[in-house]
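REQUEST
  id: r-88c1
  op: predict_structure
  target: FAD-binding domain-containing protein
  payload:
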Amino acid sequence: MATIREAGTTRKAATIRKALVIGAGIGGLTTAAGLLRQGIEAEVFEARRTPGLLLTGGGFMLWHNAFLALRRIGLDEAVAADSVRMRFHEFRSDTGRRLARWHLDGPSERCGAPACALRRSTLHKVLTHAVGDHRIRLGSRLTGWTEDGEGVTAHFADGSTARGDVLIGADGLRSTVRARMRRGFEPPPRYAGYTAWQAITRLPGESLVPTGTFFNLWGRGGLRFLYCRLDENEVYWDAITSDRAATGLDTLRHSRRDELAAAYRHWPDPVGRIIASTDEEAILPVAVHDRPPGGGWAHGRVVLVGDAAHPMTLNLSQGAGQAIESGVVLAGLLGRTPPDEVPQALRAFEAARRERTADMVGTSWRIGTLGLVHSTPLCRLRDLMMYVFFDTVARGQSYGLMLDDRLERGPVLPAAGSAGTG
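RESPONSE
  id: r-88c1
  status: 200
  body:
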Protein backbone atom coordinates (compact mmCIF):
# COMPACT_ATOMS: atom_id res chain seq x y z
CA MET A 1 0.00 0.00 0.00
CA ALA A 2 1.45 3.37 -0.98
CA THR A 3 1.54 5.83 1.90
CA ILE A 4 2.00 9.55 2.46
CA ARG A 5 3.76 10.81 5.61
CA GLU A 6 2.64 14.08 7.17
CA ALA A 7 3.69 15.54 10.55
CA GLY A 8 4.70 12.18 11.97
CA THR A 9 1.54 10.38 10.81
CA THR A 10 0.97 7.93 8.00
CA ARG A 11 -2.11 7.78 5.79
CA LYS A 12 -3.11 5.89 2.67
CA ALA A 13 -2.70 7.69 -0.66
CA ALA A 14 -6.22 8.53 -1.87
CA THR A 15 -5.39 8.08 -5.56
CA ILE A 16 -2.48 7.19 -7.76
CA ARG A 17 0.19 9.87 -7.99
CA LYS A 18 1.87 9.28 -11.37
CA ALA A 19 1.16 7.52 -14.67
CA LEU A 20 3.68 6.56 -17.35
CA VAL A 21 2.17 6.93 -20.82
CA ILE A 22 3.95 5.22 -23.71
CA GLY A 23 3.09 7.01 -26.95
CA ALA A 24 2.29 10.65 -27.73
CA GLY A 25 -0.57 10.03 -30.12
CA ILE A 26 -4.22 10.93 -29.65
CA GLY A 27 -5.05 8.18 -27.14
CA GLY A 28 -1.95 8.71 -25.01
CA LEU A 29 -2.22 12.49 -24.87
CA THR A 30 -5.96 12.37 -24.12
CA THR A 31 -5.34 10.01 -21.21
CA ALA A 32 -2.50 12.18 -19.91
CA ALA A 33 -4.61 15.34 -20.20
CA GLY A 34 -7.46 13.70 -18.29
CA LEU A 35 -5.14 12.60 -15.50
CA LEU A 36 -3.42 15.97 -15.23
CA ARG A 37 -6.76 17.70 -15.02
CA GLN A 38 -7.41 15.72 -11.83
CA GLY A 39 -4.03 16.58 -10.34
CA ILE A 40 -2.37 13.25 -11.16
CA GLU A 41 1.08 13.59 -12.69
CA ALA A 42 1.58 12.00 -16.12
CA GLU A 43 4.77 11.66 -18.12
CA VAL A 44 4.56 10.78 -21.81
CA PHE A 45 7.31 8.83 -23.60
CA GLU A 46 7.49 8.90 -27.39
CA ALA A 47 9.92 6.84 -29.48
CA ARG A 48 10.05 9.37 -32.32
CA ARG A 49 12.70 12.03 -31.86
CA THR A 50 11.37 14.90 -33.98
CA PRO A 51 8.29 16.84 -32.84
CA GLY A 52 7.23 17.40 -36.46
CA LEU A 53 6.81 13.66 -36.97
CA LEU A 54 4.00 13.70 -34.39
CA LEU A 55 2.02 16.13 -36.52
CA THR A 56 1.81 14.03 -39.68
CA GLY A 57 -1.43 12.88 -41.26
CA GLY A 58 -4.19 14.55 -43.18
CA GLY A 59 -7.67 15.59 -42.18
CA PHE A 60 -10.47 13.57 -40.67
CA MET A 61 -13.94 13.71 -39.18
CA LEU A 62 -14.44 13.96 -35.45
CA TRP A 63 -18.01 12.98 -34.60
CA HIS A 64 -20.34 14.11 -31.80
CA ASN A 65 -19.25 11.38 -29.40
CA ALA A 66 -15.62 12.52 -29.51
CA PHE A 67 -16.61 16.08 -28.59
CA LEU A 68 -18.76 14.79 -25.73
CA ALA A 69 -15.71 12.94 -24.41
CA LEU A 70 -13.42 15.96 -24.92
CA ARG A 71 -15.92 18.07 -22.96
CA ARG A 72 -15.31 15.90 -19.91
CA ILE A 73 -11.67 17.04 -19.87
CA GLY A 74 -12.40 20.62 -20.87
CA LEU A 75 -10.97 20.49 -24.40
CA ASP A 76 -14.01 20.37 -26.68
CA GLU A 77 -14.17 24.11 -27.29
CA ALA A 78 -10.46 24.39 -28.08
CA VAL A 79 -10.71 21.63 -30.69
CA ALA A 80 -13.94 22.97 -32.20
CA ALA A 81 -12.47 26.47 -32.49
CA ASP A 82 -9.99 25.32 -35.12
CA SER A 83 -12.33 22.90 -36.92
CA VAL A 84 -15.08 23.17 -39.53
CA ARG A 85 -18.53 22.14 -38.41
CA MET A 86 -20.13 19.59 -40.74
CA ARG A 87 -23.84 20.05 -41.44
CA PHE A 88 -24.28 17.25 -43.98
CA HIS A 89 -22.81 13.83 -44.72
CA GLU A 90 -23.57 13.09 -48.36
CA PHE A 91 -23.22 9.71 -50.08
CA ARG A 92 -22.91 9.63 -53.89
CA SER A 93 -22.14 7.14 -56.64
CA ASP A 94 -19.28 7.55 -59.11
CA THR A 95 -21.80 8.88 -61.61
CA GLY A 96 -22.66 11.76 -59.26
CA ARG A 97 -26.04 10.37 -58.20
CA ARG A 98 -26.95 11.24 -54.61
CA LEU A 99 -27.58 8.06 -52.63
CA ALA A 100 -28.23 9.56 -49.20
CA ARG A 101 -27.81 12.81 -47.31
CA TRP A 102 -27.57 12.91 -43.54
CA HIS A 103 -28.49 16.21 -41.85
CA LEU A 104 -26.14 16.61 -38.89
CA ASP A 105 -27.56 19.76 -37.26
CA GLY A 106 -30.40 17.87 -35.58
CA PRO A 107 -28.21 15.29 -33.84
CA SER A 108 -25.74 18.05 -32.91
CA GLU A 109 -28.50 20.00 -31.18
CA ARG A 110 -29.99 16.96 -29.47
CA CYS A 111 -26.71 15.71 -27.99
CA GLY A 112 -25.16 19.16 -27.55
CA ALA A 113 -22.00 18.45 -29.54
CA PRO A 114 -20.98 19.08 -33.17
CA ALA A 115 -19.44 16.88 -35.84
CA CYS A 116 -16.38 18.57 -37.34
CA ALA A 117 -13.65 18.16 -39.92
CA LEU A 118 -10.12 19.15 -38.98
CA ARG A 119 -6.46 18.49 -39.53
CA ARG A 120 -5.06 15.70 -37.41
CA SER A 121 -2.27 18.07 -36.41
CA THR A 122 -4.86 20.51 -34.99
CA LEU A 123 -6.15 17.95 -32.51
CA HIS A 124 -2.62 16.90 -31.64
CA LYS A 125 -1.57 20.49 -30.90
CA VAL A 126 -4.53 21.05 -28.57
CA LEU A 127 -3.78 17.85 -26.67
CA THR A 128 -0.05 18.63 -26.51
CA HIS A 129 -0.76 22.06 -25.06
CA ALA A 130 -3.05 20.52 -22.44
CA VAL A 131 -0.33 18.07 -21.39
CA GLY A 132 2.64 20.44 -21.69
CA ASP A 133 5.74 19.99 -23.84
CA HIS A 134 7.87 19.52 -20.72
CA ARG A 135 5.98 16.31 -19.89
CA ILE A 136 6.63 14.69 -23.29
CA ARG A 137 9.98 12.91 -23.63
CA LEU A 138 10.87 12.39 -27.30
CA GLY A 139 13.31 9.71 -28.43
CA SER A 140 12.32 7.43 -25.55
CA ARG A 141 12.02 3.89 -26.91
CA LEU A 142 10.54 1.47 -24.40
CA THR A 143 12.38 -1.84 -23.99
CA GLY A 144 10.42 -3.30 -21.08
CA TRP A 145 9.17 -2.81 -17.53
CA THR A 146 9.19 -4.39 -14.10
CA GLU A 147 6.34 -4.42 -11.59
CA ASP A 148 6.09 -4.80 -7.84
CA GLY A 149 3.45 -4.23 -5.21
CA GLU A 150 4.09 -0.48 -5.11
CA GLY A 151 4.26 0.40 -8.80
CA VAL A 152 5.89 -0.15 -12.19
CA THR A 153 9.31 0.86 -13.58
CA ALA A 154 9.69 1.46 -17.31
CA HIS A 155 13.03 0.82 -19.02
CA PHE A 156 14.19 2.63 -22.15
CA ALA A 157 16.76 1.98 -24.85
CA ASP A 158 19.03 4.81 -23.68
CA GLY A 159 19.38 3.16 -20.25
CA SER A 160 17.01 5.53 -18.46
CA THR A 161 14.10 4.44 -16.28
CA ALA A 162 10.88 5.98 -14.99
CA ARG A 163 8.69 5.02 -12.04
CA GLY A 164 4.93 5.30 -11.69
CA ASP A 165 1.79 3.68 -10.35
CA VAL A 166 0.59 2.54 -13.79
CA LEU A 167 2.01 2.10 -17.30
CA ILE A 168 -0.34 2.98 -20.18
CA GLY A 169 0.47 1.58 -23.62
CA ALA A 170 -0.77 4.09 -26.20
CA ASP A 171 1.82 3.31 -28.84
CA GLY A 172 -0.40 2.49 -31.78
CA LEU A 173 -1.28 -0.37 -34.10
CA ARG A 174 2.08 -2.14 -33.75
CA SER A 175 2.38 -1.45 -30.04
CA THR A 176 5.57 -2.44 -28.23
CA VAL A 177 3.63 -2.59 -24.97
CA ARG A 178 1.02 -4.92 -26.49
CA ALA A 179 3.71 -7.22 -27.91
CA ARG A 180 5.58 -7.43 -24.60
CA MET A 181 2.38 -8.09 -22.67
CA ARG A 182 2.00 -11.12 -24.96
CA ARG A 183 5.63 -12.19 -24.52
CA GLY A 184 6.61 -11.24 -28.04
CA PHE A 185 4.02 -13.26 -29.96
CA GLU A 186 0.76 -12.20 -31.50
CA PRO A 187 -0.76 -12.53 -34.99
CA PRO A 188 -0.03 -9.42 -37.09
CA PRO A 189 -2.66 -6.72 -37.62
CA ARG A 190 -5.46 -7.71 -40.01
CA TYR A 191 -5.08 -6.14 -43.45
CA ALA A 192 -8.37 -4.83 -44.85
CA GLY A 193 -7.53 -5.29 -48.54
CA TYR A 194 -7.39 -1.61 -49.49
CA THR A 195 -5.20 1.48 -49.31
CA ALA A 196 -6.21 5.04 -48.39
CA TRP A 197 -4.31 7.70 -50.34
CA GLN A 198 -4.62 10.70 -48.02
CA ALA A 199 -3.87 14.34 -48.78
CA ILE A 200 -4.67 17.97 -48.09
CA THR A 201 -4.60 20.33 -51.05
CA ARG A 202 -4.95 24.05 -51.60
CA LEU A 203 -8.17 24.52 -53.57
CA PRO A 204 -10.23 27.67 -52.96
CA GLY A 205 -13.76 27.83 -54.28
CA GLU A 206 -16.94 27.44 -52.26
CA SER A 207 -18.89 26.47 -55.36
CA LEU A 208 -16.41 23.68 -56.07
CA VAL A 209 -16.27 22.21 -52.55
CA PRO A 210 -18.91 23.74 -50.26
CA THR A 211 -18.08 24.21 -46.60
CA GLY A 212 -19.99 22.02 -44.16
CA THR A 213 -20.55 18.90 -46.29
CA PHE A 214 -18.56 15.68 -46.04
CA PHE A 215 -18.75 13.89 -49.40
CA ASN A 216 -18.51 10.09 -49.47
CA LEU A 217 -18.39 8.67 -53.02
CA TRP A 218 -18.69 4.95 -53.81
CA GLY A 219 -17.60 3.66 -57.20
CA ARG A 220 -17.11 0.63 -59.37
CA GLY A 221 -13.88 -1.30 -59.69
CA GLY A 222 -12.98 -1.16 -55.98
CA LEU A 223 -12.69 2.64 -55.80
CA ARG A 224 -14.01 5.16 -53.29
CA PHE A 225 -13.36 8.87 -52.74
CA LEU A 226 -13.95 11.07 -49.69
CA TYR A 227 -13.48 14.82 -49.42
CA CYS A 228 -14.46 17.92 -47.47
CA ARG A 229 -13.36 21.51 -47.00
CA LEU A 230 -11.11 22.32 -44.03
CA ASP A 231 -11.11 26.10 -44.51
CA GLU A 232 -11.59 28.63 -47.30
CA ASN A 233 -8.40 27.47 -49.03
CA GLU A 234 -7.83 23.82 -48.13
CA VAL A 235 -9.57 20.55 -48.96
CA TYR A 236 -8.92 17.17 -47.34
CA TRP A 237 -9.38 14.02 -49.43
CA ASP A 238 -8.98 10.24 -49.34
CA ALA A 239 -8.83 8.04 -52.42
CA ILE A 240 -9.52 4.46 -51.31
CA THR A 241 -8.36 1.73 -53.69
CA SER A 242 -8.84 -2.01 -53.31
CA ASP A 243 -5.80 -4.21 -53.91
CA ARG A 244 -7.31 -5.37 -57.18
CA ALA A 245 -7.75 -1.77 -58.34
CA ALA A 246 -4.30 -0.79 -57.09
CA THR A 247 -2.60 -3.37 -59.32
CA GLY A 248 -3.24 -0.95 -62.18
CA LEU A 249 -1.40 1.92 -60.46
CA ASP A 250 2.18 2.14 -61.79
CA THR A 251 3.94 4.43 -59.31
CA LEU A 252 7.33 3.13 -60.47
CA ARG A 253 7.15 4.98 -63.78
CA HIS A 254 4.53 7.63 -62.95
CA SER A 255 3.69 9.92 -60.07
CA ARG A 256 1.09 8.99 -57.48
CA ARG A 257 -0.95 12.01 -58.50
CA ASP A 258 -0.95 11.09 -62.20
CA GLU A 259 -1.86 7.47 -61.51
CA LEU A 260 -4.73 8.42 -59.22
CA ALA A 261 -5.93 11.04 -61.70
CA ALA A 262 -6.06 8.33 -64.36
CA ALA A 263 -7.88 5.88 -62.08
CA TYR A 264 -10.55 8.50 -61.26
CA ARG A 265 -10.69 10.16 -64.69
CA HIS A 266 -14.36 9.24 -65.27
CA TRP A 267 -15.55 10.38 -61.84
CA PRO A 268 -17.70 13.50 -61.49
CA ASP A 269 -16.32 16.95 -60.78
CA PRO A 270 -14.60 18.01 -58.55
CA VAL A 271 -12.75 14.71 -57.98
CA GLY A 272 -10.38 15.23 -60.92
CA ARG A 273 -9.67 18.82 -59.99
CA ILE A 274 -9.01 17.91 -56.37
CA ILE A 275 -6.41 15.31 -57.35
CA ALA A 276 -4.81 17.55 -60.00
CA SER A 277 -4.42 20.42 -57.51
CA THR A 278 -2.50 18.29 -55.00
CA ASP A 279 1.28 18.34 -54.61
CA GLU A 280 2.85 14.94 -55.22
CA GLU A 281 4.62 15.01 -51.84
CA ALA A 282 1.32 15.63 -50.05
CA ILE A 283 -0.21 12.29 -51.12
CA LEU A 284 0.40 9.63 -48.47
CA PRO A 285 -0.65 6.00 -49.13
CA VAL A 286 -1.75 4.18 -45.97
CA ALA A 287 -2.44 0.44 -46.02
CA VAL A 288 -5.56 0.00 -43.86
CA HIS A 289 -5.41 -2.46 -40.95
CA ASP A 290 -7.27 -3.30 -37.78
CA ARG A 291 -7.27 -6.14 -35.26
CA PRO A 292 -10.18 -8.51 -34.68
CA PRO A 293 -11.97 -7.58 -31.44
CA GLY A 294 -10.56 -9.27 -28.38
CA GLY A 295 -9.52 -8.79 -24.78
CA GLY A 296 -6.22 -8.79 -23.01
CA TRP A 297 -5.80 -5.03 -22.68
CA ALA A 298 -4.95 -5.08 -18.98
CA HIS A 299 -2.42 -7.08 -17.03
CA GLY A 300 -1.21 -6.12 -13.58
CA ARG A 301 -0.35 -2.42 -13.64
CA VAL A 302 -0.15 -2.23 -17.42
CA VAL A 303 -3.00 -1.34 -19.79
CA LEU A 304 -3.53 -0.58 -23.48
CA VAL A 305 -5.51 2.34 -24.90
CA GLY A 306 -6.40 3.63 -28.38
CA ASP A 307 -5.02 1.79 -31.41
CA ALA A 308 -2.83 -0.35 -29.15
CA ALA A 309 -6.06 -1.84 -27.74
CA HIS A 310 -8.76 -1.48 -30.40
CA PRO A 311 -7.48 -0.38 -33.84
CA MET A 312 -10.19 -0.07 -36.48
CA THR A 313 -10.56 0.74 -40.16
CA LEU A 314 -11.50 4.23 -41.31
CA ASN A 315 -15.05 3.55 -42.47
CA LEU A 316 -16.86 4.96 -39.43
CA SER A 317 -14.33 7.78 -38.88
CA GLN A 318 -14.14 6.55 -35.29
CA GLY A 319 -10.48 5.59 -34.77
CA ALA A 320 -9.58 8.90 -33.16
CA GLY A 321 -12.98 9.20 -31.50
CA GLN A 322 -12.68 5.84 -29.78
CA ALA A 323 -9.11 6.60 -28.68
CA ILE A 324 -10.42 9.82 -27.10
CA GLU A 325 -13.32 8.04 -25.41
CA SER A 326 -11.03 5.34 -24.02
CA GLY A 327 -8.51 7.90 -22.79
CA VAL A 328 -11.21 9.86 -20.95
CA VAL A 329 -12.79 6.75 -19.42
CA LEU A 330 -9.40 5.42 -18.29
CA ALA A 331 -8.39 8.78 -16.80
CA GLY A 332 -11.70 9.01 -14.96
CA LEU A 333 -11.28 5.57 -13.40
CA LEU A 334 -7.67 6.13 -12.41
CA GLY A 335 -8.56 9.51 -10.94
CA ARG A 336 -10.42 7.80 -8.12
CA THR A 337 -8.23 4.70 -7.73
CA PRO A 338 -5.93 4.10 -4.73
CA PRO A 339 -2.44 2.88 -5.71
CA ASP A 340 -3.02 -0.65 -4.46
CA GLU A 341 -6.21 -1.03 -6.54
CA VAL A 342 -4.71 -0.18 -9.93
CA PRO A 343 -4.97 -3.73 -11.38
CA GLN A 344 -8.69 -3.88 -10.51
CA ALA A 345 -9.29 -0.44 -12.06
CA LEU A 346 -7.54 -1.47 -15.29
CA ARG A 347 -9.67 -4.59 -15.56
CA ALA A 348 -12.77 -2.46 -14.96
CA PHE A 349 -11.66 -0.14 -17.77
CA GLU A 350 -11.35 -3.03 -20.19
CA ALA A 351 -14.75 -4.37 -19.19
CA ALA A 352 -16.32 -0.93 -19.67
CA ARG A 353 -14.87 -0.38 -23.14
CA ARG A 354 -14.52 -3.80 -24.76
CA GLU A 355 -18.06 -4.32 -26.08
CA ARG A 356 -18.47 -0.79 -27.48
CA THR A 357 -15.15 -0.78 -29.30
CA ALA A 358 -15.74 -4.32 -30.61
CA ASP A 359 -19.01 -3.12 -32.17
CA MET A 360 -17.15 -0.23 -33.80
CA VAL A 361 -14.38 -2.48 -35.14
CA GLY A 362 -16.84 -5.01 -36.56
CA THR A 363 -19.20 -2.48 -38.13
CA SER A 364 -16.35 -0.52 -39.72
CA TRP A 365 -14.87 -3.70 -41.16
CA ARG A 366 -18.19 -4.75 -42.70
CA ILE A 367 -18.73 -1.33 -44.29
CA GLY A 368 -15.27 -1.55 -45.82
CA THR A 369 -16.12 -4.81 -47.57
CA LEU A 370 -18.80 -2.97 -49.56
CA GLY A 371 -16.04 -0.99 -51.23
CA LEU A 372 -14.28 -4.13 -52.44
CA VAL A 373 -17.05 -4.88 -54.93
CA HIS A 374 -15.81 -4.66 -58.54
CA SER A 375 -18.49 -5.87 -60.93
CA THR A 376 -20.88 -3.28 -62.30
CA PRO A 377 -24.07 -5.27 -61.51
CA LEU A 378 -23.03 -5.79 -57.88
CA CYS A 379 -22.04 -2.14 -57.54
CA ARG A 380 -25.45 -1.10 -58.88
CA LEU A 381 -27.10 -3.40 -56.35
CA ARG A 382 -24.98 -1.90 -53.54
CA ASP A 383 -25.88 1.63 -54.69
CA LEU A 384 -29.57 0.71 -54.75
CA MET A 385 -29.29 -0.65 -51.21
CA MET A 386 -27.62 2.58 -50.09
CA TYR A 387 -30.30 4.66 -51.83
CA VAL A 388 -33.11 2.74 -50.12
CA PHE A 389 -31.66 2.24 -46.64
CA PHE A 390 -28.88 4.73 -45.88
CA ASP A 391 -31.10 7.71 -45.11
CA THR A 392 -33.19 5.68 -42.68
CA VAL A 393 -32.00 2.32 -41.39
CA ALA A 394 -28.25 2.85 -41.78
CA ARG A 395 -28.41 6.35 -40.34
CA GLY A 396 -30.33 5.11 -37.31
CA GLN A 397 -27.91 2.24 -36.73
CA SER A 398 -24.91 4.53 -37.12
CA TYR A 399 -26.17 7.03 -34.57
CA GLY A 400 -27.33 4.27 -32.25
CA LEU A 401 -23.78 2.95 -32.25
CA MET A 402 -22.10 6.36 -32.08
CA LEU A 403 -23.99 8.10 -29.29
CA ASP A 404 -23.51 6.40 -25.95
CA ASP A 405 -25.79 7.71 -23.20
CA ARG A 406 -22.97 7.31 -20.70
CA LEU A 407 -20.96 9.91 -22.60
CA GLU A 408 -23.84 12.36 -22.71
CA ARG A 409 -24.46 11.93 -18.98
CA GLY A 410 -20.79 11.60 -18.01
CA PRO A 411 -19.52 14.23 -15.56
CA VAL A 412 -16.73 16.63 -16.35
CA LEU A 413 -13.59 15.29 -14.69
CA PRO A 414 -12.81 17.49 -11.69
CA ALA A 415 -10.07 20.05 -12.25
CA ALA A 416 -7.35 20.03 -9.62
CA GLY A 417 -5.57 23.27 -10.32
CA SER A 418 -2.43 23.21 -12.39
CA ALA A 419 -2.74 20.48 -15.01
CA GLY A 420 -1.14 21.35 -18.30
CA THR A 421 0.29 24.34 -20.16
CA GLY A 422 3.88 23.85 -21.00
